[in-house]
Description:
The complex is a heterodimer.
Chain A: E1 4-6, E2 10-14, E3 19-25, E4 32-38, E5 45-51, E6 56-58, E7 62-67, E8 72-77, E9 86-92, E10 103-104, E11 108-113
Parallel strand pairs in A: 2-11
Antiparallel strand pairs in A: 1-3, 3-8, 4-5, 4-9, 6-7, 7-8, 9-10, 9-11
Chain B: E1 4-7, E2 10-13, E3 18-25, E4 31-37, E5 44-50, E6 53-57, E7 64-70, E8 73-79, E9 87-94, E10 104-105, E11 109-113
Parallel strand pairs in B: 2-11
Antiparallel strand pairs in B: 1-3, 3-8, 4-5, 4-9, 5-6, 7-8, 9-10, 9-11
Amino acid sequence: GESVGLHLPTLSVQEGDNSIINCAYSNSASDYFIWYKQESGKGPQFIIDIRSNMDKRQGQRVTVLLNKTVKHLSLQIAATQPGDSAVYFCAENGSGGGADGLTFGKGTHLIIQP
Amino acid sequence: ETGVTQTPRHLVMGMTNKKSLKCEQHLGHNAMYWYKQSAKKPLELMFVYNFKEQTENNSVPSRFSPECPNSSHLFLHLHTLQPEDSALYLCASSPWGGTNYEQYFGPGTRLTVT
């Protein structure tokens, strides 16, 4: 199947700074993208999603940007907090129905420095 | 709490043992999934069930046998596993037929095969 990957395995930012996590995807038919956060000892937790008919979507302190031209997805976290330390995954669901499984990237470990 | 529970949380088994992992979702969803999460690898989709019917088997070895007696429960029966099967096994659920593709994950079962 198509791959979804992340550019950087580890990202370290100062508390209070903004962070940007990037993701590249290769399936041009993908029409839905999700960002998940996984803390140690827990399962992935939904953060925000975006459909291919949108370029940007904002949530609480998070923004997802989608560039379909270059098949690039990013997650911006504003004013990072210690609780933001986790591994972040992007995932895509292709163009299938809701029962299809997600294709995940390898993950980026976000470290918040005090 | 995501509404998806998994038991046991940790499991150690020998290669000749037979064990089962259990997943239960309290969200009224109709689709359930098994994923495998190994160190330094993306989450791998194993099985998909939609309205209790298996809709996807992602080339998983037969030593893994899923069972879905109803839309709220999902099992993964394990027998004659190999050490390389040691991983975190994640269960997820999602609504079916709607435009919401978000999947809700349980905390996972950490499996060690000795």
